[in-house]
Write a structure and sequence with these properties.
Shape: rod-shaped
Radius of gyration: 43 Å
Largest sheet: 4 strands, antiparallel
Structural class: alpha+beta
Order of helices and strands: HHHEEEEEEEEH
Distance between the termini: 152 Å
Length: about 200
Amino acid sequence: YTRLGAISELASRLASDNLEVAVGAHEALTDTADTDIDFVADRARTALRQVGVQPAQTDVHFGQIEQGSPSPQRTVTLFGPPIARVVTPRTSDAWIRATHTAEGVEISLDTSGIGELHGTVELNGPTGDATMTIDVELVAPTTTAPPTRSELAAHDSASEQDAAPSPPVDAASAEPEPATPRTNPYSQPRASPSIT
């Protein structure tokens, strides 16, 4: 029971924010799992499995991406206590870039290649290792086909119709607007002379 109590104490230290304490507990549990009697060793192995490297996903599919487009990015979350999230990512190919962040591992790609690409990112930490597979299909950029002769002819015909002048207005057929009579403000009717 004393040994089992020690394992429980070491297991609780694995969750510590102090990485030195957590790493020391991990080393002690690893030694117990390798050298102690089966009953005690099994308890130590169970505690160690709780802090293994655990990425949220082990397959990262980027799908179809146009060659030369901006580098796509994916962030893979790491589960577990702080000691389980301390990892060093290693990529299998130069077109894969992986960076350890506070959230997990950020993966981006170089899109200058062409075709279907497959690779891996290995995560190595004090509590173990994990591997993620990466794949993407880089396709040639799409280009707009030049207009056909019939399309150019139709465009030119429409332009000519738009540019055609309007027909002249026949002056004889146009009805003149009725003139508005003008009033002389100074003409006043004369008053008749009065007879006395």
